[in-house]
Amino acid sequence: MATEKTFTVAGTATNSDGTVKVRFANDLVARIKILNKNNCTNINLVELPRAMTKMEALQHLQTLGITAGDAGFAVANKLAEKAKVAKKGEVKIKATRVVAESKTPETQEATA
Fold this sequence. Notes:
Elements: E1 7-14, E2 20-25, H1 28-37, E3 41-52, H2 54-63, H3 69-88, H4 105-111
Antiparallel strand pairs: 1-2, 1-3
Helix pairs in contact: 2-3
């Protein structure tokens, strides 16, 4: 069974073309260096309290109050996207009726 990857850093950054994206990493300093090298601005990364999946990290970002402006919009959109993917993996089972097990001669002797 595959385990979902976890991250220790999450946040938002604005690309050089003006789009805001949610970012995930395991090394805060290295990630900031890469974003600066790629001319990203408004870098807002936080260290998470523990290693988290992307879904957990997005929920944590919302609890921190990253809900205003483009950054909040990016977090909300990514969270909705991850929730949709997680829901796709769920299996729904609907039972229409239950059939009682019939007694065979062996089970009748055991109950007698």
